[in-house]
Specification:
A: alpha/beta, B: 317 residues, alpha/beta
Chain lengths: 289, 317
C-alpha cells in the first residue's frame, strides 16, 4: 500500500499522462479525467485488492472474471485517459502504449473496450448509465460464488440523468449488494454546462438514501487523504445488507488552472501552448511515456 | 412430401421453460433473470428447484441486461428473459455496448415475439427485433419453430460461448420436431427435399410451410422446405445447395420484410447466385389486436400466402 506522498507522485504523473494523451490524440475528455484522478489512482494503488501475480512478460496477470480480487468498473467511460494511465502505471500493459490513445489500430479506444483485448477492462463503457447495472451483476456474481471481494464502480453526476441508473440504484439494495461501492463524481458540470442548469440532479445523496443505500460524503475528492478516508469508511459499511455510495465532490479539470471552474474542458483537447502551460503545473514524477 | 404429424400442441415459450428446467439440473452456471414476467416465460419449474440462481429484476429491462453482463463477466451463463419487445428495441443500446461489443456470454431469451402475441396489440408485437439483432456483430440469432426445437435450442445455447438472442412465442402450435433432436446452432434443418422451389422458413412459419408443401404437392409442385432456426450465422451452404437444384426461393417469417431472414437470404443470393425470391412477412406495417390466427391470416403469414408466393416465384424462373 502506497503512502500519501507516493500516491501524490503517481497522481501527478497520471494527470500529466492525461493531458499529454488528449493533446496527442487532439481529442478526448481531460476535465473529468483530471477531476477523478485522485480517486482512481487511490483505488488501484492503495485501496483495492487486486491480483498481484505477474506473467512472464512482467505485466500483471489480468483475470476477466475478477475471482478473488476487487473489481473496478468505469461507467463514465469518456474519462478513459485516466483509466488507461492508471492501468498502465499499475502494470497491466506497457506505459509507452499510452501514446496510441485514440489512434487507428490501438487497444486504447476513445472509450474503454474489451474488443481489442486491453488488459484491465471487463466491459465496454461510454454510452452512459450502464456501468452500475454491470457492477450490480458482478457484485451479485461474487455473492453467488461466495467470493468476499468487493466491486467498485465510478459514475459521473451528469450520468445520473440516465433512466437506467435509477433502475440499477433500485436493484442493488433489493438484492442486498453490500459488497458494492459506487462512487458518484458530483462535480456539478456536464458538457452543456452546470448540471443544475442543464437538468438539475438536485440532491443525489438523498435520492440514493431514499432508494436504500448507505452513503459516505467525500468533501474534497482531490485531496488524497480525504479520498483514502472515504474509501476506508465505505469499506467499514460493507456486509450490512445495503450497497454503499460515496458522494465525491471533485473539481473538473483539477491540477490544470485554466481547466478548472468551467465545464469547457469536459471534452476538448489542449493545443501546443496550452499543453505547455498544463505541464508546467504537473511536474514529471515517474517518467513520461 | 415427407409426412409430418403431431399429437400435441404446445407453446414455444413452454419449450424455453422446459429447457431452463433441464439446465437447472445439469448446468450449475446457468442463471435465469426475468423482468416481472415469470409466468409468461414459464420459469416456474426452474425457480422451484434453483431459487438461488434466479434473479427477479422487476420492470427494469435495461438494468437486467447490465446485470446479465456482470454475471457473465463473473463466469455465469445468464439467460435474461422478458417479452421480445422489451428484450430488443427497448434495450438495444445496452445489448449493443454491454453485451455484443463486450462479447459477453449473455443469452437474451424472449417470448411473445411477432403478431402471434395477439390481443395485446401492436405496442407489444415486435416485428423488427430480428433486424436489430442481425445487425449486431457477433450476435447469434435463433428463432425456433416448435416446443421441442425451442427446448433443444435453449439447452444448446448454454454450451455456446458468446452473446445470443433466442426468440420464441406465445401461442400453442403443433409439436412436430423430434423430442430427442440434437440442436446444432447455425445448421439448417431439411424439412422436405424437393426440386421445384426452395421454401425457407423460420419460427411459427415452418408449420405453415409444411402445410403449404402439402397443398403444392397436390398441385404437382415438389417443394424443398428448409427450416432456418439460426438466422445468424446463416447456413449459407444449405441454402446454396438447395437453390442450385430449385432455382427459386420463397422465404417466410413472422417479422418485417425489412431486415429479417428473407433479407439475409437475398443478401446471400445477390452476392452469389442471383435468382427469383419472393418473401412472406409483414410488409412495412405495425400489427394490431386480434387472435393469433386472425392476425396471421390478415397479414398473410400462412400456408395460403406461401403457396401464392411459390407460384409467383416459379413463374419468374
Amino acid at each position: 500500500m502506497k503512502s500519501t506522498d507516493e500516491l501524490k507522485q503517481i497522481v501527478t504523473q497520471v494527470r500529466r499522462d492525461i493531458v499529454r494523451m488528449v493533446h496527442g490524440a487532439k481529442s478526448g475528455h481531460p476535465g473529468g479525467s483530471l477531476g477523478c484522478a485522485d480517486m482512481v489512482t487511490t483505488l488501484y494503488f492503495s485501496q483495492m485488492r487486486i491480483n498481484e501475480a505477474k506473467g512472464e512478460d512482467g505485466f500483471l496477470e489480468f483475470s476477466h472474471s475478477g475471482d478473488g480480487e476487487d473489481m473496478f468498473f468505469l461507467s463514465n467511460g469518456h474519462i478513459s485517459p485516466l483509466f488507461y494511465s492508471v492501468l498502465a502505471r499499475r502494470g497491466y500493459f506497457p506505459i509507452k502504449e499510452l501514446s496510441t490513445f485514440r489512434l487507428l489500430n490501438s487497444r486504447l479506444q476513445g472509450h474503454p473496450a474489451t474488443h481489442e483485448g486491453l488488459p484491465g477492462i471487463r466491459v465496454a463503457s461510454g454510452s452512459l448509465g450502464q456501468g452500475l447495472s454491470v457492477a450490480n451483476g458482478a457484485a451479485l456474481g461474487k455473492k453467488m460464488k461466495g467470493d468476499d471481494f468487493l466491486v467498485y464502480v465510478l459514475m459521473g453526476d451528469g450520468e445520473q440523468q440516465e433512466g437506467q441508473i435509477w433502475e440499477a440504484v433500485q436493484f442493488a439494495p433489493n438484492h442486498q449488494l453490500d459488497n458494492l461501492i459506487a462512487i458518484v463524481d458530483w462535480n456539478l458540470k456536464q458538457i452543456d454546462g452546470p448540471t443544475d442548469k442543464v437538468n438539475n440532479n438536485r440532491n443525489i445523496k438523498s435520492k440514493y438514501e431514499a432508494f436504500g443505500w448507505l452513503t459516505v460524503d467525500l468533501a474534497d475528492g482531490n485531496d488524497i487523504d480525504q479520498v483514502k478516508d472515504a474509501l476506508i469508511k465505505a469499506k467499514e459499511l460493507i456486509g450490512q445488507g445495503q450497497p454503499i455510495a460515496i458522494m465525491m465532490h471533485s473539481e473538473m479539470g483539477f491540477g490544470v488552472d485554466y481547466m478548472m471552474h468551467t465545464h469547457k474542458w469536459h471534452g476538448a483537447a489542449p493545443n501546443d501552448e496550452q499543453l505547455a502551460r498544463a505541464l508546467e503545473q504537473l511536474p514529471e514524477t515517474l517518467g513520461d511515456y | 412430401m415427407k409426412k409430418y404429424t403431431y399429437t400435441d400442441k404446445k407453446d414455444t415459450r413452454s419449450g424455453f421453460g422446459a429447457g431452463m428446467a433441464e439446465l437447472g439440473k445439469t448446468n450449475p452456471k446457468v442463471v435465469a433473470l426475468c423482468a416481472d414476467l415469470v409466468a409468461s416465460l414459464k420459469l416456474d419449474d426452474f425457480i422451484k428447484e434453483n431459487s438461488d440462481r434466479f434473479v427477479q429484476c422487476g420492470i427494469s429491462e435495461a438494468n437486467m441486461i447490465g446485470v446479465s453482463a456482470g454475471l457473465a463477466i463473473s463466469g455465469y451463463i445468464p439467460y435474461a428473459s422478458t417479452f421480445a419487445n422489451f428484450g430488443s428495441g427497448r434495450v438495444y443500446d445496452q445489448i449493443r455496448q454491454s453485451v455484443a461489443y463486450s462479447n459477453l456470454n449473455v443469452k437474451i431469451a424472449v417470448s411473445h415475439a411477432g403478431l402471434t402475441l395477439g390481443e395485446d396489440g401492436a405496442t407489444h408485437q415486435i416485428l423488427e427485433d430480428l433486424a436489430m439483432m442481425r445487425a449486431l456483430p457477433g450476435m447469434t440469432v435463433i428463432n425456433p419453430c416448435d416446443y421441442n426445437q425451442t427446448k433443444a435450442a435453449t439447452i444448446a445455447l448454454a454450451d455456446h460461448v458468446g452473446p445470443a438472442y433466442l426468440r420464441f412465442g406465445r401461442p400453442v402450435m403443433p409439436v412436430f420436431t423430434p423430442a430427442d433432436q440434437k440442436f446444432e446452432i447455425g445448421k439448417a434443418w431439411m424439412v422436405n427435399e424437393g426440386k421445384d422451389v426452395t421454401i425457407i422458413a423460420t419460427g411459427h412459419l415452418v408449420w405453415e410451410a409444411i402445410q403449404a408443401g402439402e397443398i403444392l404437392e397436390q398441385e404437382g409442385i415438389d417443394a424443398e422446405i428448409i427450416n432456418i432456426h439460426t438466422i445468424k450465422p446463416l447456413d449459407e451452404e444449405a441454402i446454396l445447395k438447395s437453390v442450385a437444384k430449385t432455382g427459386c426461393v420463397v422465404t417466410a417469417e413472422e417479422h418485417q420484410l425489412n431486415g429479417g431472414l428473407g433479407e439475409g437470404v437475398c443478401q446471400l443470393l445477390s452476392r452469389t447466385t442471383p435468382l427469383p425470391v419472393e418473401m412472406v412477412g409483414v410488409n412495412n406495417s405495425f400489427g394490431e389486436s386480434g387472435t393469433p390466427a386472425q392476425l396471421m391470416d390478415k397479414y398473410g403469414l400462412n400456408a395460403a400466402s406461401i403457396v401464392e408466393k411459390v407460384k409467383k416465384v416459379m413463374s419468374r424462373k
